Amino acid sequence: MAPFSLVTASVSWLAKSFSVLSSTNTLARCASVLPSAYVNPVRCLTSQASGPPKRPLNGYLRYVLQQQPVITRHNPEIKSVDIIRKIAQQWRTMSPEQKRPFEEASVLAREQFKVDLQHYQAQLTPAQVQQQAQEKRQRMAKRKAIRKKRELNNLGKPKRPRSPFNIFMSEHFEEARGTTTQAKMKSLLEDWRNLFSHQKQVYMQLAEDDKIRYKNEMKSWEDHMMEIGREGLIREQTLSTKKKPATKTSAAKTGTNAKAKAVKKATATGKSKPTRKTAKSSSVKTVRTTKKT
């Protein structure tokens, strides 16, 4: 009779073999039911939805991926920027017949992407759809903020004033302790906390001077934005201060106009009343004279 350990080992081996056979059968069934584009062992064996399909490349980027290793192999000393520039020059000089294979491959990949995207979206739950929509809004807001910041830099918006610690860090960053940027900043923060008050006063005065610089530069920049019609880029507090004098002058004008109208009305009524009194007095005099007679 075989030992008990040998029996258990044979039983475990049989169980593993049956599990392998069952997994291969399930893969075969998945391959027979789904098209070849959807066959993926992870997707078939698990019910969790994987990441969304990647967008296909256009014809030019396909040409770049094909030519980049070739040019790098023949010219190893050229920089990557120069390689891309050279490939772009080649693409511009190519004929439509030479570009057609790359563009046709891009069209086919785009059609396959649409099918894959529909299949992926059909697997999502309502909670996952809501989460993806929220992530998309966040990405759009981030891109909008980046575009706005780039536009402000192009328009020459002044840089914000630096704090005393930032000035101290910029002056002593090179000789700071540590090999990484994070380690250097940590050591500089410790040095800043260990400084005496009279030592920090120097950097505090520099920060105050930088605030004055920022205030003057922002005033001239916002005046220039007003001149070119970009009021939307100006701070709200600046717009409120610029609008207040105009409202005061308009209120003063309306007040003076109201006063002038009131004076005119008073003079008009004052002139008309005496005429009525004189008419009354003349009528009374005539009545008295008639009585005497």
UniProtKB/TrEMBL annotation:
Gene Ontology biological process terms, A to Z: regulation of transcription by RNA polymerase II
Residues in the signal sequence: 1-17
Composition skew (Basic residues), residue ranges: 139-150
Residues annotated to bind DNA: 53-121, 158-222
Gene Ontology MF, one: DNA binding
Keywords, sorted A to Z: Activator, DNA-binding, Mitochondrion, Mitochondrion nucleoid, Nucleus, Phosphoprotein, Repeat, Signal, Transcription, Transcription regulation, Transit peptide
SUPFAM superfamilies assigned: HMG-box (SSF47095)
Domain HMG box: 53-121, 158-222
Biased composition annotated in UniProt, kind: Low complexity: 247-272
A cellular component annotation (GO) from this entry: nucleus
Domain of life: Eukaryota
Pfam family, any one: HMG_box
Location relative to the cell: Mitochondrion matrix, Mitochondrion nucleoid
Annotated segments matching region Disordered: 130-165, 239-293
Oligomer and partners: Monomer; binds DNA as a monomer. Homodimer. Component of the mitochondrial transcription initiation complex, composed at least of TFB2M, TFAM and POLRMT. In this complex TFAM recruits POLRMT to the promoter whereas TFB2M induces structural changes in POLRMT to enable promoter opening and trapping of the DNA non-template strand. Upon metabolic stress, forms a complex composed of FOXO3, SIRT3, TFAM and POLRMT. Interacts with TFB1M and TFB2M. Interacts with CLPX; this enhances DNA-binding.
Functional note: Binds to the mitochondrial light strand promoter and functions in mitochondrial transcription regulation. Component of the mitochondrial transcription initiation complex, composed at least of TFB2M, TFAM and POLRMT that is required for basal transcription of mitochondrial DNA. In this complex, TFAM recruits POLRMT to a specific promoter whereas TFB2M induces structural changes in POLRMT to enable promoter opening and trapping of the DNA non-template strand. Required for accurate and efficient promoter recognition by the mitochondrial RNA polymerase.
PANTHER family: HIGH MOBILITY GROUP PROTEIN DSP1 (PTHR48112), TRANSCRIPTION FACTOR A, MITOCHONDRIAL (PTHR48112:SF36)
Designated name of the protein: Transcription factor A, mitochondrial
Source organism of the structure: Anoplopoma fimbria
